[in-house]
Amino acid sequence: MRMYCSLWNADDWAKQGGRVKTDWTKAPFVAYYRNFNINACATGGACDSQSGNSWQTQELDANGRNRMRWVQQRHMVYNYCADFQRFPQGASNECKRSRF
């Protein structure tokens, strides 16, 4: 398993619709991961509660969904699932799935 990170200039759409610009004087930008630990299943593999992966089938309850909506309404700056100008061909597969 591998994990990758990338940085791209999305000033024109991702940063409050272009209102906030990247401060390129702070470059070079560096990202690193420390104490990263993942528990995952191979594609097509069985993940169940007996293998310690019961978290994969957990869902938010009504209170959790309400709290999530509250955070999104007050703190989410950009949602590409709702950006129909940038993606007129329609939403991607993950956007079509239930949000909660």
Automatic annotation (TrEMBL):
- Superkingdom per UniProt: Eukaryota
- Domain Xyloglucan endo-transglycosylase C-terminal intervals: 51-95
Q: Which Pfam families match?
A: Glyco_hydro_16, XET_C
The reply on keyword Hydrolase is yes
Q: Which GO terms describe its molecular function?
A: hydrolase activity, hydrolyzing O-glycosyl compounds; xyloglucan:xyloglucosyl transferase activity
Q: Where is the GH16 domain?
A: 1-26
Question: What catalytic reaction does the record list?
Answer: breaks a beta-(1->4) bond in the backbone of a xyloglucan and transfers the xyloglucanyl segment on to O-4 of the non-reducing terminal glucose residue of an acceptor, which can be a xyloglucan or an oligosaccharide of xyloglucan
The protein's Enzyme Commission number: 2.4.1.207
**Keyword rRNA-binding recorded:** no
Task: Choose one Gene Ontology CC annotation of this protein and give it.
Answer: apoplast
The record's InterPro entries line, in alphabetical order, gives: Beta-glucanase-like (IPR000757), Beta-glucanase/XTH (IPR044791), ConA-like_dom_sf (IPR013320), XET_C (IPR010713)
Identify the enzyme class. Answer: transferase
Keywords tagged on the record: Glycosidase, Hydrolase, Transferase
**GO BP of this protein:** glucan metabolic process
* Protein name as it appears in the record: xyloglucan:xyloglucosyl transferase
